[in-house]
Design a protein that fits this description.
With 575 residues, this protein is an all-alpha fold. It is globular, with a radius of gyration of 23 Å. It has a domain of 186 residues. Helix 1 crosses helix 9 and helix 3 runs antiparallel to helix 6. A hairpin with a 5-residue loop joins strand 1 and strand 2. The chain contains 19 helices and four strands.
């Protein structure tokens, strides 16, 4: 560890923290339909979209209507992207003559990007055409993120409204999120990336002669625009197979720093948006503080573990000290231009946010670092999460926390002025158990059947970790991978698609049901028996609930993978 490394991490946290309040206020105004600085420029476009689509923005929907619209929209997106991938060989904007994707791979990819997961069982530059990248994957990155934001806003309205039968209009929220939030951020981000050397072109591969006189084709394409939305949206799908480790996606340390910030920007801002909309910004600050504590524990653990390096090298008497010729620590799978601090920060931001973008190979991280990456995804995206999913994941745990507190004091639990009754508890538990059930169940199947074992790149605990990571990443809508697993097979393409489907829809539908139930309630006045939810006591209880639930659910599974691998490594028995 170095002072420069800690300063980089500290500056990163400061920038994200300082942007939270202004961006949160902007989000609150956008979704309330209030005037913003972009309304004069984009207001006419918004109205034309409503007119062309037959949307009546003044007509709101019940939670059930909102959920049906959400599900139909995603079903249409899956069908459309699947068809595009299957037909890409016959479509224009295919300068490398990419062939159509196999049915199972096309289905996996369609489900992946429509659910905002971005799991990739293929190499982007060698498999997918420009048309599929731009019209298919980039468009779905916008829409899936806008849909996630819409669900979060609908959930917030459940707490903010009084005796309301509606929670908003999905089509209006989707349009506003795309036009006023995602599009402006991505235009600015793409311009920055182009200025830093990220290509943006429709030309085919560059045919070059190397310094040794060899012949080489260098892949390129419309990278900057897709890179921008993959970061802002919490999508994370790379244009290139190496993702943000590729110099055309992430060319400089400055670009790397900004890309990591873009990953967390909206997820952090939504906490302030929540506080504003429920009438108490302190409610949002408590959520952000809990997220920041979890983020700090994660980045501290990863940076420490990676900086110490691999103890197996010490047994071989290899010099591991930092000097002008080599850095200290575990540099396997990392880009020298980012170093350990930059790689640890990006990995933590990626898995804490469920973005899934990578600038280093997680498969090469030390076992304890890998365990932290697991843990980030296993707590239901509550650390920051993707735009929308992080906030409603944290609010679900807030409901669990006040319910447990209510049991201890013998009082009906309340949160943000709303009583938490049995219907809300049932839907909350349903939302929280779907992800671990799918993760652990599908991992057990894959580790026991021949098609699952056939994809392993390693034996022993690390091979098991590769399988567990794949299904954890899929159900957490993260999309990153340990990469040692060959997942491009019918078995993994179909089972991972199922995991992504469960991780998205089996959480969001109960969340919308809770939102509808809360919106119909009156606001309960505070009394002497009301549990304060804006102080240290509640923040500590919320943090404890997250850690205890996550630990009880996943610790046995982690013990079979990265934890036992750590002890094997230190005992010198790793094979």
């Amino acid at each position: 560890m170095t002072v420069i490394g800690w300063l980089q991490i500290g500056l990163f946290v400061a920038v994200v923290g300082l942007s939270t309040r202004p961006l949160g206020g902007y989000l609150a105004r956008v979704y309330a339909g209030e005037r913003t600085m972009l309304r004069p420029l984009l207001g006419a476009v918004e109205r034309q979209i409503y007119r062309a689509a037959g949307i009546r923005p003044e007509v709101e929907q019940s939670w059930y209507q909102y959920a049906v619209a959400f599900l139909l929209f995603h079903a249409f997106g899956i069908v459309l992207l699947y068809a595009l991938l299957r037909l890409q060989s016959a479509l224009p904007l295919n300068p490398q003559d990419q062939s159509a994707l196999a049915p199972d791979l096309a289905l996996n990819t369609a489900v992946s990007f429509v659910t905002n997961t971005s799991w990739q069982s293929y190499g982007g530059e060698t498999t997918v055409s420009y048309a599929s990248q731009m019209v298919g994957i980039a468009v779905q990155s916008f829409l899936s993120a806008a849909a996630g934001l819409s669900v979060a806003i609908a959930f917030i309205r459940g707490f903010a409204r009084r005796r309301s039968a509606t929670i908003g209009n999905f089509w209006v929220d989707l349009t506003r999120g795309t036009l006023y939030v995602l599009l402006p951020l991505c235009v600015a981000a793409a311009a920055f990336l182009v200025a830093n050397g990220v290509p943006q072109t429709l030309l085919s591969c560059a045919d070059v002669t190397t310094l040794e006189g060899g012949h080489q084709l260098i892949a390129r394409g419309p990278v900057a625009t897709q890179e921008a939305i993959k970061l802002v949206s919490g999508d994370g799908g790379g244009f290139f197979n190496a993702n943000s480790g590729h110099p055309f996606e992430n060319p400089t340390p400055l670009a790397d720093f900004v890309e990591a910030i873009l990953i967390l920007l909206l997820g952090a801002a939504l906490t302030n948006c929540f506080g504003r909309m429920v009438g108490s910004e302190r409610q949002g600050w408590v959520l952000l503080c809990v997220m920041a504590i979890l983020f700090g524990l994660g980045i501290g653990g990863i940076y420490l573990s990676e900086s110490f390096g691999n103890p197996a090298l010490a047994a071989l008497r290899i010099d591991r000290s930092a000097n002008l010729q080599q850095p200290a620590g575990n540099m396997e799978g990392k880009e020298v231009r980012f170093g350990i601090a930059g790689s640890a920060l990006f990995a933590e931001a990626s898995t804490a946010s469920s973005d899934g973008a990578v600038n280093s190979m997680h498969d090469s991280f030390m076992p304890l670092s890998g365990a932290i990456l697991f843990a980030n995804m296993m707590v239901d995206e509550v650390i920051i999460g993707a735009p929308g999913s992080g906030l409603y994941g944290m609010l679900l745990f807030c409901i669990v926390t006040v319910f447990l507190a209510g049991l201890m004091i013998g009082r009906t639990p309340e949160y943000a002025g709303k009583k938490i009754s049995p219907p809300e508890i049932k839907m909350t538990i349903l939302a929280l158990i779907g992800v671990p059930a799918a993760t652990l169940g599908l991992t057990a199947i894959a580790a026991a059947v021949e098609p699952g074992l056939a994809g392993l790149g390693n034996a022993g605990p690390h091979g098991y970790s590769e399988i567990l990571y794949a299904f954890t990443s899929a159900t957490a809508t993260n999309g990153s991978a340990f990469a040692g697993l060959n997942a491009n097979s019918p078995f993994y393409n179909l089972t991972l698609a199922l995991a992504m489907f469960i991780g998205r829809f089996f959480v969001i539908v109960p969340v919308l049901a809770v939102a509808g139930s809360l919106a119909a309630q009156p606001v309960v006045p505070r009394s002497a028996g009301t549990l304060p939810t804006t102080g240290v006591l509640f923040a500590s209880s919320l943090l404890g609930a997250i850690l205890i639930v996550g630990g009880l659910t996943y610790l046995p599974a982690l013990a079979l993978g990265p934890i036992i691998e750590h002890f094997q490594l230190w005992a010198g028995t790793l094979y």
